[in-house]
## 1
Amino acid sequence: MSKQPTTRPFRFYPAYCFQSSPTYDAWVKLTAADFHVLQLEREFQGQNIYFYLNHPIRFVRVVGVVVAIDDINLRYSALTVDDGSGATVELKIVRTSLEEQGSKVPTSATTISNVNVISQSGVFEITIDHRSLDIGTVVKAKGTISEFRGVKQLELKRVQIVSSTDDEAQAWAETAAFKSDVLSIPWRVTSAQHSEIKARIKADKKRAKEYDKRIRDYEVKKFEYEAKKAAHERQKESKREARRRKEEMIMNAGSLI
C-alpha cells in the first residue's frame, strides 16, 4: 500500500489559499491505496478536508472492479471496488425512503440520479443507468470522503459503468498521470501568487461590502417609499372621510327643511 512521506519538506497553506490549489475543487484521481493514506491535519479538523502531501482534497474519483455488493440496511448499500493497487474502496450508497420518494413502489431510489436499489421479496439488486450491477463490473466512481469505524469510505455522488477495456486503461492512465504530475509534487504558492490571492480576497470583500451597502440602501428607499405611500393613502382616506361627513351634513340639513 502507498504511504505518504514521514518527513515533510513542504508547508501547509492557510485555508484561504485552497481555491488556488489544483486539487481543492477537483475530482482527484486516486488509486484505492492512495485513497487510504489521505490524512487529516489538526489545523483543519472538522472541515472534512484531507491531504495528500499538502494537497487539500475533498472530492475523489476511483476506478475499479466491483468485488462485493452489500445490502447494509434500509438507508445504505455499499459496493467494494478493487483497482489492483493493493487496497479496496467501499462506495457508500445513500438510499431514500419510500416516503421521501413520494411513492409506494417497492423500489428504493438513492441520492445518485442514475442509481437504483431494488430490495424486495428476497431480491436485492443495484442498477446503474438501468443496467444491473454484477461482481466483475468495472465502474468509475466519484464521491466525498467519510469514515466509518476509522476506515475511509467514498460516499457516492456520481458513477458510471466502464464498458470497454480501452476506457478502463485510459482511466487508470489518467490516475497515474495525475499522481505523477500533481500529487507527487508538493503544492507550492509563490510570493507573487500569494499576493494575487490576498488581492483577490480583498477585492471580493470590497464587492461583498458594496453589495451589502446597495441592499441596505434599497431597503431604506423601499421603507421610505412604503411609508410615503401609506401616508398618501391615509391622506386620501382622510379627505374621502371628510367629504363623506360633509355630504351627510348637507343631506341631514336638507331633511330638516
## 2
Amino acid sequence: MTEVNKVSVRIPPFWPEDPLVWFAQIEDQFAIAGITVDTTKFYYITSNLEPQYARHVSDIIKKPPDDGKYEKLKTELIKRLSISQEAKLKQLLNDEVLGDRKPSEFLRHLQKLAGPTVPEDFMKTLWTGRLPTHIQTAVASQRKLSLTESAELADCIYDIVQSTPQVSSISNCDVPTNDMAKQLAELTKEVASLRTQLNNERTRHRRKSRDRCHNNNSHRSRSKSKSYDRSVCWYHQKFGTKANRCTTPCSYSSSSGNVSDSRK
C-alpha cells in the first residue's frame, strides 16, 4: 500500500493563463513541506482545482494511472488548457462580431476571450477593426485615448447614431462606401455648424455681460460726479457736521447743510 504524507500545504488559486508558473509555485510548497510521494501530490491538486478547470482532466481524476499520477495530471492539464486557449484566440480573431452589443460590451467580451496576457495595443486594434466604419473613424482620430476612454467615446457615438433614425438606418444597412462617406461628411458639417453657433452664442453672451458691467460702472461714476459738490471740502462732503477737519476753500453750513463760507 502506498504511503500518503499528511502535511498541510497552501495551494494558491489556479492560474489558467500560465499553469506552468502555478505548478512551479505548488512544487515549491511541496519541497518546503517535504512532500515527495506522487499520490499525495496528485490528491492535493485534484482537491484544490476549481471545477471549471478540473473538467478538462476529468478522465484522469476519475481514473488515474497506477504510476506517475501527478506528472500525468500536470502534463495533460497544461496541454489541454493550451488547446482551449488557442481555440478562444481563434474565435477571437475570426468569429466575433459586434452584433447588437454596445462597443464597450463587445470590448469586454473580447477581453474575456483573450485573457489578461493579450497586449492592450493588439486588443485595441482587433476591437476597433470589428466596429462600424463611422465609429472606427472617430476612434482612430483620437489616438491618444486609452482603451477604456476609446470605448467610452465609441459608446457615445453608438448612442447618437441609434437615437438618430436617418444615421441609424444608414449604419445598419449595406450602403456603398462612397455613400457612407458622403453621409458622414454631411453629419460632420452639421456638428461643426452647431459648434460654431454655440461658440458665437457664448461670445455674444460674454459681450453682453461686459457691456452691462461697463454701463453699470459708467452710471455709478456719473452718479458720484453729480452728487459731489466741489465747493465743499472732502471732509465735510464725507462726514458732514461730524468732520473734525476742513480744507479751504470750503463752503459748508453746519446749520442748514447748504453751501456757505465756513473757513476757520
## 3
Amino acid sequence: MRDIFEIRRQDAGGRIGELRVPRAGVTVETPTLMPVVNPNLITIEPSTFTEFGAEMLITNSYIIKSDDDLREEALEKGLHEMLGFDGAIMTDSGSFQLAEYGEIDTDTEDIIEFQRDIGSDIGTPVDIPTPPDASRESAEIQLGETEEALALAEGMDVGEMLVNAPVQGSTHVDLREAAAEHAYGTDLDVFPVGAVVPLLNDYRYADMADVVAAAKRGLGSDAPVHLFGAGHPMMFALAAALGCDLFDSAAYAIYARDDRYMTVRGTEHLADIDHFPCSCAVCSEHSPDEVRALADPAREELLAEHNLHVSFAELRRVKHAIKRGRLMELVESRARSHPEMLDGYRAFLDHADQYERSDPASKDTFFYVSGESARRPEVERHHARLPRLDTADEVLLSESGAGSDDFDEIYRVKPPFGPYPTALATTYPVTGEVPDRLDDEAYAAAARGIAALADANPDTDFTLAHYDWPDTALAAVPERVELYDIDADRDDNGGDGDGE
C-alpha cells in the first residue's frame, strides 16, 4: 500500500485526514463528498463543483468507454479537460451496471487500462457487488471473483493512478471482515465498502452500520474508506462515526429530477414545501412558488444546486464536530430524524468497544442527551478502566459527594459513568453535562460501572449512597454492595439528612 493517507484528528471512528492523490497533484481533506457525474446526463457542470466545496468527483468509466463519442473525447482530451474539473477524479468500472443488468462488456484488465489512459486519478476493478441477504454460498463465490479482480489490478502497470480495492461480502459480517483483511493485504490504495446502496435505499441503516464496522475490523487504521452510494446528508455523521472517509452522491441530481428537496432530516417533495428551511443561495434567492413555476431544466438545476449546498454544508458540520470532539452529539441529533436512523445509531453503539480504541481519551464536554448516550464509547472506556483501580477496605460510593469518617475511601458516583476517584472529578469524561431528570439507562450504566469496580476488588466492602435510583438499576448492582437511599434518609429526617 502506498503512503497516501494521514489522519489529523479523530472522534469515535470519525477522522479528519489528508488523502494524497499523486496523479492529480492534490491533497484532499477527508471526510469528503464526491458528486457523481453521469457523462450522458449532466445536471450541473462539473467545472462549478468547486463552488460548492467539492475537491473530488466520481464518474463512470464504463459509460464513457461504451459510448463512441465519449470514449474518443476522453482519450483525446483526458478526463479532466473533458469534464472541466481540476480536482481529483475517481472512476467506477461498471460494477453498478453489472449488478443492475447481470453482465457488462468489459473486464478488470480492460477497464483499468482504459481508466489509466483517460487520466483517471483513482481507478476501480470490476468487482462483484453481491446484494444484501444473498446466500452465504453465493456471497463466497462472488467474493472469490472480486478477489481475483483485485489480484489482476494489483499486477497492472497503472503509473501514478491509485486503485480501489472494493470490500464485498453481502450482509455476512464475517465475510466482510475477511474481505477487508484480504483487500488491505494487497498493494491497492483505497477501500470502498461496496453493495450498500440497496441497504441505504431501504433505510436499513443498522445493517449498514454492522457491515461497515465489520469492514473496519479487517482494515488497518491507515486505510482510506469509501462508502459507495452514501449520498444523503442525513447519514453523513453516522457514516463518518463508523470510520468512512469518502462518500459519493448521485442523489443530488436524481432527487432533483423528481422534484425532491434534500434536508439533513430527510427528503421533501417540492410540492409540499411552503417555506424553504434553508439559507443556501438557492433558498435565499427563491421562494418555493418561484421554483415550482420554472420549467425544466431550470427547476431541476436549482434543486440540484440546493441538494449540493445542503450536502456540503452537512459535511462541513461533520468536520467541525470531529475537530471539536462533538461528533457523537451530532450523530445523536441526526439519529432522531428517522426511526431507522436511530436503529443505525444503536447498531453503531453495539460496536462501541471497537470504536473506543480510536476515540480520544480527552475532548470537549460530554453531553448526555438520550438513553443512547449511556452506551457511547466514552462510557465504555470508563467502565473498562475501573478494574485498574485498587480500593481500600471500606469504600463509600457517593452520588451526593458527601463523605463520612466511617469509610476508608470515598468515590464519587455520576450516572452514566458510575464511580470514580474524587481526584478525577475535573477530568474528562466525568465532567460531562447531564440533565437533572435522567432516564433509567443512565442509572443502569452507572450500575454496570459499580459492578466492574466491585468485581475487580472482591475484598472491599462497598456502600452505594444514591438518590432514589430505579429498581432496574439497583438490581444490576452486585448484592454485596450495601445500598443507602439518600432521599429516603432525607425524608425520614424531615429533609435534614446529610445523605450519608
## 4
Amino acid sequence: MEELLQVNNLEKIYYTGNNNHLKAVDNVSFNVNKGEVFGLLGPNGAGKTSTIKCICGLLDYEGGDVLVKGYSMKKKRRKGLKHISAVLEGNRNIYWRMTVKENLEFFSGINGLSSTKIKERMDYLIKQFQLEDQENVVVNKLSRGMKQKVAIAISLITDKDIILLDEPTLGLDVSMSHEMRQILRRIAKEEDKTILLSTHDMNVVEDTCDRLIIINNGQVIAKDTVENLKNLFNKEIYKILFKGNTEHQLLPKLKNVSNIVELQRQVDHNVVILQLNDANELFAIFELLKGESINLISIEKVTKNLEGIFMDLLKEEQQ
C-alpha cells in the first residue's frame, strides 16, 4: 500500500517571549495511505491544527519532518504542495463575493488550469455536492453548511492527491454534518483520494475514518484502526435494570463480584452499571440477583463508542 503522507517525529514550538515556549506538537508520527480517510482526533488545543498547518506548509517546524509523496516539506515544499489541497476551519479558501462557479474557476485558474479544461470536473463536483441550485449564487449568501461544501469542492477542483480538512463539520447542524460525512466517504471511495481530517467530533471519525491517531497536549496517546481501538477498549460492561430491594442491601453484595461503574436512581426503577473482568462472572451476578428480593427488568451489554474510548484515554493521561 502506497504511503502518500509521512509525518516523522514532528515538533512545533511557539515562542511566547521571556524565554517561554509552548510545544504544540511533540514528537508526532503517523503515515497515511493512498485512498485512506485518516483521522486526527483530540480535544480543542491538542495540537491538531498546528499539525495540519505544518503538513500543508503554512508553518515551519522545529523538529522531525513531513514527507508528501516523498518530498520533504522542509526542503522541497513547492514540490510537496503540488500534491496537497487544504481546507482550514472557517472556510478560508473561499472568496465570499464570488459565486460558487466563479470560486471554482478562480482557484483552478491560479493552479494553472483553464476554465475549459476543468469544466467537466467542475460540473461533476457541483453535482456531487448538490450545489446545482447554488452555482450562480454569491457564496456570502449561502448557509454555513453550503459554504463548507463549496470549500471542499474547491480543494478537489485541481484533482490533487491529498486533501487536508481541519474541522470539516464544525458548526454544522446534525443533518448537514451527516451529509458531509457521506460526501467524504464517497470522495475517498470513488476518487481514490487520500483524506486527512482533524476533528474533536468522535462521530465524524467513527463514521468516516479507516485509521486514526488521538492526540492530547501535542502528543500521540493512541494510534490504530477505529475498529481495533473499539475492540481493545470494549470491556465487559453491563447495565442492569431492577425494581425492589434498596440499594444499600444489594450494592455491597454486587461489589464483591464486580466493579460498579455507576448507579442511577430512576422514579420507578434503579439502574446499576457493572464492569466485569470476564463474561462468565455474569453467572455469579445471576445467582446473587436470584437470591435477592428484586424484580429484574433487564440486563444488557453496553458497547462503548469512540467517545467513551476517547474519554477513558484522557482520564488515564490525567492519572
